Each structure stands twice: as structure tokens, then as C-alpha cells.
């Protein structure tokens, strides 16, 4: 079976819990404990006396029961708050070590694991949160995300890689899963020959962010869907065997691609694929077909119906326009619930789980933009859903627009962070309210913030991306500043990293610079022009001038 059995999971939990007990008893050192705890997604927090638990959600797909179990854990062990990450994970902060075993056992009961949520492992497999829902998508990639996750959970190569390894599966032009910045990025396609259609994927490899960012390179135009595990196994084997082991700063697969060059990398991969094909090819295809055939999407709880012609009250029309999309299933809609900065309370989580059961199909999906999607909402149920979201404080419109800022946890939680990126995100949101800039008028325009160069906030690929840094003033005091990138984008075609505006902006002035850039875009764009294309057309000099004019002499 591809999915590990209960005994395997429970033995893994018991082994990890035993190491926690050893650490608490002082029989292993913090240095010895570090790789052990990270293998199950357990991080030191900033104070080094408490922990953050990262929880893998493959493809961002959750059932209502799973969501409620996460809410229980957040209540009992995380001060009643959970956080959606930029890889569709859930993070819970302030976790006491003595509760770790109980957390893992409780999550396992509903089919959730934290194994490989950190460490030198295959991290959470991301997928488009609308997978299988929209008419523009070739086919549902959800089962393939879960397939890959299950296959590698207890794979001998996992947890022993040179460095973390990231896989994404996209199936829409927006590249919601961000395959362009992953070690493996799969893009869904349907190929037709002789009157028959075949599902498959274009394959991109060796992308990644961090201090040195690389876009993934296309190595195959089309691989049959049944071969997806063969390619995953071969690429992971190649990284396991040839990846850098001495210098962790050069251990990601992007550096292996750089070292070998595309031609030598391709030849080495072809040889690895041939070895996997010869030894396991037929078995992996058979297991893939069986897994996908057994995959079932739960039926919706309410009958399909067109959207009711009602204003739904103040704010409903804007929310309906920006947060709701028609599904390929006539009469149903998928709703993006804006979760500001990715944080939600367990009470809000329970309400979302209940709404998914009452008005959807009993499932929810986390997104790379730190929001939550509720699929299969009947059109007639949209006003009721909006009013209930208003009651729990989650009816904010303009998902994935300027006001829906993405941020890493920053210096509020992370020991690596330089600046308070979440605080910066709040500053931007507050400033937008003060100046009255309507995010909806700009269309989708994403601001992404990282509190350090590691790019957990994915600032390289934001329409506007901010990177935190400290700059010493004339008085000798270091103060938080941000560099600003513009024009970043993901996508199977046209992915690009943002270009840096001139100057470095004090945190109190950065919101003004962002609004100035947005106003410039609003006033000077061509009809239908995306922000990334606008940046390339007008150039950095024009946008830097707009930003500098807004903040006067405060920019270094």
C-alpha cells in the first residue's frame, strides 16, 4: 500500500515522543534533539523556551473533522490561535513539549501527520486550492498531491536528503501552487491523440527562493499522469545522491542544477529515470492508477442553485465580486475566505468547519496566500454564508488584492527574522484605510513580506515584495527598513522575480511608498495590463521616482 499503515505511523509517533522525553529528562542535548524535533515539524520559537508546531496539509485539503481537530489542538496547546502558512500548512505556536505526543496521536486519528514538516525532507506538497473546481482547469490534481505525500512519508530517502525539498502541482494559469519556485513543479495538461485524451504534466525542476533565488527550469513538456511517481522518485534520488552534503548553504537542488548545467543534469536524470523504470516502473504506475481511481470528492450538502439576486446587505456585492468564483459544477461556487495575515482563532476555525458542512461539501482548503477556500457553496447560500462570515469577523473582501497582505511570522516568532514582517503587514493595511485606496479598483495585486532574506514570505514573486533589513543611522542605532521589489510573478510561462526599487525604506514610510506605486499603476496602466507587465513597460526609474516622491527625504 502507498499509504503507510496505522502501525507504521504509531511507531513513528512513539519514537519521536520518546526522544522528547529524553530531551526533557536531560539525557540528550539540545544539539542532539534538534534534528529529531525538526523531523516532525517542531521548532524553537524566538524565546527558545516554547515551540511552534508545523502541521502538513497536503494540497491544503481538509475535512471538517480534521479542521475541528486542529481547532482542539490550538485551544489546548496554542492559546486558541492557528496560522495558515505560505505552503498551505497550519502552524500552532506556544506548544508545550509535554503535549507533543498527545498532539501527534490526536492528529493521527483524523489522518493528519507532522512528519517531514521540517528537516531535510520532502515538505508539504502544495496544489492549487481550486483544483477540480474551475472550468479553466484541465483536471483535478488533488489526488496526485496526496499520492506524492503518502508515497514519500516513510520513504527511505525522506528525512535524509541534503536539504529541504519542495514539490508543487498547479493546474490553472495563475499557478496557485507556485510550481516555478519549487524543486519540482508539475503543471497539469490534457493531450489529445487519435480522438482520445490523456492527462499529464509538464515538469519543471530546481526552483527555489532564499538568499539566492532560482526559477525552475522546464525539463519535460508532457509526462503521462501515471508516471508522476516515477519522475518524483528519480528526481529525489538524484538530489539524494548528488546534492551538496558539506555546505548546507549550497545543498538545495537549484545549486545542483547550477553546478552540473542543464545538459549534464538532464543526462543524469534520464539515467535515474531509466533505473526507476526498470526496477519499479510498472508497480508505480499501477499504484498511481489505483490511488487516483479510489479518490472521491465528497458530495455537497445543499442542492445546486444559481446565485440569488440580492444585495446581501452592506459589503456583500464587493465580497461577492472579489471572493467568489463559479465552479465547473453548475450552480455551485467556491468562496475564498480572507484570513488576515493567515491567523484565525479556534472559534473562527470551528465556525468555518460548520459552514463547510452546512453550506458546502464538508471540506476546506488552505491556500498559499494564507486564506481558506470553501468549495461547493450553492448560489442561493452565498448571502447566508456572507452574513455568517460577518458574524465571525472573516467577511473581508478583496482576497488576493492589495489589502490581503502575505507575510512570514517575522520577528514576533522567528529567531532568524530581522524585522516584524507581520507588523509591517498591519501598517500597510492600516495605511490603505487611511488614504482610502480601494484595492478592488486595482484588481488582484499581491504584496508579500519576508522578515529576512530567506523569503518565507515569498517576496521575490509578489507583485510588490518587501524584504526586512536593519540599517544603522547616524546616531549608531540600527532601525528596521525594507527593500521593495516590484513585478514578481509565478506561472508556467512568464515567471519572474521582482526588480528592486532604488533606496531602502524605513518601516514607517514603506506603506506610503507602496501606495504611491499602486497609484502610479492605477493611473498609467493600459486596459487589462497586469502589474508585472506594467512594471516591465514603465521601468524601475518611473516607479522608484513615484515611491521617493511619496516619502520625500526619508529614503536612504
Descriptive keywords:
19% strand; Alpha-Beta Plaits; Sulfite Reductase Hemoprotein, domain 1; alpha+beta; globular; 556 residues; Sulfite Reductase Hemoprotein, domain 2; six-stranded mixed β-sheet; five-stranded antiparallel β-sheet
* Rg over CA atoms: 23 Å
Oligomer: single chain
CATH superfamily of the largest domain: Sulfite Reductase Hemoprotein, domain 1
Structural class based on helices, strands and sheet pairing: alpha+beta
- The residue ranges in which pLDDT falls below 50 over 5 or more consecutive positions are none
What distance lies between the first and last C-alpha atoms, to the nearest angstrom?
59 Å
Overall mean pLDDT:
95
CATH topology annotation of the largest domain:
Sulfite Reductase Hemoprotein, domain 1
Task: Determine the fraction of residues in helical runs and give it as a percent range.
Answer: 25-40%
Largest sheet: 6 strands, mixed
- The DSSP helix count reads 15
**CATH class group of the largest domain:** Alpha Beta
Number of strands: 21
**What proportion strand?**
15-25%
Named CATH architecture of the largest domain:
2-Layer Sandwich
Shape: globular
Describe the protein's architecture and organization.
The strands form four sheets. Strands 16, 17, 18, 19, 20 and 21 form a six-stranded mixed β-sheet that branches. Strands 1-2-5-4-13 form a five-stranded antiparallel β-sheet. The model has no long low-confidence stretch (mean pLDDT 95). The chain starts with 5 loop residues before the first helix and ends in a 5-residue tail after the last helix. It has four domains: 104 residues, Sulfite Reductase Hemoprotein, domain 2 (Alpha-Beta Complex); 169 residues, Sulfite Reductase Hemoprotein, domain 1 (2-Layer Sandwich); 76 residues, Alpha-Beta Plaits; 149 residues, Sulfite Reductase Hemoprotein, domain 1 (2-Layer Sandwich), CATH 3.30.413. The protein has 556 residues and is α+β, with helices and mostly antiparallel strands. The protein contains 15 helices and 21 strands.
Amino acid at each position: 500500500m502507498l499509504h503507510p499503515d496505522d502501525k507504521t505511523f504509531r511507531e513513528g509517533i512513539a519514537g519521536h515522543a520518546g526522544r522528547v522525553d529524553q530531551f526533557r529528562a536531560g539525557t540528550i542535548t539540545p544539539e542532539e534533539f534538534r534534528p529529531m524535533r525538526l523531523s516532525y515539524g517542531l521548532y524553537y520559537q524566538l524565546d527558545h523556551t516554547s515551540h511552534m508546531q508545523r502541521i502538513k496539509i497536503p494540497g491544503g485539503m481538509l475535512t471538517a473533522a480534521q479542521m475541528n481537530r486542529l481547532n482542539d489542538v490550538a485551544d489546548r496547546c496554542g492559546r486558541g490561535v492557528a496560522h495558515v502558512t505560505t505552503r498551505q500548512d497550519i502552524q500552532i505556536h506556544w506548544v508545550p513539549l509535554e503535549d507533543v505526543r498527545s498532539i501527534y496521536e490526536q492528529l493521527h486519528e483524523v489522518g493528519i501527520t507532522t512528519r517531514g514538516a521540517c528537516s531535510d525532507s520532502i515538505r508539504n506538497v502544495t496544489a492549487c486550492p481550486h483544483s477540480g473546481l474551475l472550468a479553466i482547469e484541465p483536471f483535478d490534481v488533488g489526488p496526485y498531491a496526496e499520492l506524492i505525500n503518502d508515497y514519500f512519508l516513510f520513504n527511505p530517502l525522506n528525512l535524509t536528503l541534503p536539504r529541504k525539498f519542495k514539490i508543487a502541482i498547479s493546474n490553472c494559469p495563475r499557478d496557485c501552487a507556485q510550481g516555478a519556485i519549487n524543486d519540482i513543479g508539475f503543471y497539469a495538461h490534457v493531450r489529445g491523440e487519435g480522438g482520445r485524451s490523456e492527462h499529464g504534466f509538464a515538469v519543471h525542476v530546481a526552483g527555489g527562493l532564499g538568499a539566492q533565488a532560482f526559477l525552475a527550469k522546464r525539463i519535460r513538456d508532457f509526462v503521462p499522469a501515471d508516471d508522476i511517481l516515477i519522475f518524483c522518485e528519480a528526481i529525489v534520488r538524484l538530489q539524494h545522491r548528488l546534492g551538496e552534503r558539506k555546505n548546507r548553504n549550497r545543498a538545495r537542488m537549484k545549486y545542483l542544477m547550477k553546478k552540473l548545467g542543464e545538459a549534464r543534469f538532464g543526462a543524469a536524470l534520464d539515467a535515474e529515470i531509466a533505473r526507476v523504470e526498470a526496477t519499479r516502473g510498472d508497480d508505480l504506475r499501477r499504484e498511481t492508477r489505483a490511488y487516483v481511481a479510489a479518490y472521491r470528492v465528497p458530495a455537497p450538502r445543499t442542492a445546486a442553485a444559481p446565485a440569488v439576486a440580492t444585495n446581501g446587505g452592506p459589503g456583500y456585492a464587493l465580497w461577492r465580486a472579489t471572493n467568489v468564483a463559479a465552479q465547473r459544477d453548475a450552480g455551485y461556487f467556491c468562496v475564498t475566505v480572507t484570513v488576515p495575515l493567515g491567523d484565525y482563532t479556534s472559534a473562527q476555525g470551528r465556525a468555518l468547519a460548520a459552514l463547510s458542512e452546512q453550506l458546502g461539501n464538508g471540506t476546506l482548503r488552505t491556500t498559499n496566500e494564507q486564506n481558506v477556500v470553501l468549495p461547493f457553496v450553492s448560489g442561493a447560500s452565498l448571502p447566508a454564508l456572507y452574513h455568517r462570515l460577518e458574524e465571525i469577523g472573516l467577511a473581508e473582501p478583496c482576497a488576493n488584492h492589495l489589502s490581503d497582505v502575505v507575510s512570514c511570522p517575522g520577528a514576533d516568532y522567528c529567531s532568524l527574522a530581522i524585522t516584524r514582517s507581520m507588523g509591517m503587514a498591519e501598517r500597510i493595511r492600516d495605511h490603505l484605510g487611511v488614504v482610502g485606496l480601494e484595492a478592488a479598483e486595482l484588481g488582484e495585486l499581491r504584496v508579500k513580506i519576508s522578515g529576512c532574506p530567506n523569503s518565507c514570505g515569498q517576496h521575490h514573486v509578489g507583485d510588490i515584495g518587501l524584504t526586512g533589513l536593519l540599517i544603522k543611522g547616524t546616531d549608531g542605532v540600527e532601525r528596521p527598513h525594507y527593500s521593495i521589489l516590484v513585478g514578481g510573478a509565478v506561472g508556467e510561462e512568464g515567471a519572474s522575480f521582482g526588480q528592486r526599487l532604488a533606496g531602502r525604506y524605513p518601516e514607517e514610510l514603506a506603506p506610503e511608498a507602496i501606495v504611491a506605486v499602486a497609484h502610479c499603476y492605477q493611473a498609467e496602466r493600459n486596459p487589462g495590463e497586469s502589474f508585472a507587465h506594467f512594471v516591465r513597460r514603465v521601468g524601475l526609474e518611473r516607479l522608484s521616482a513615484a515611491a521617493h516622491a511619496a516619502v520625500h527625504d526619508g529614503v536612504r
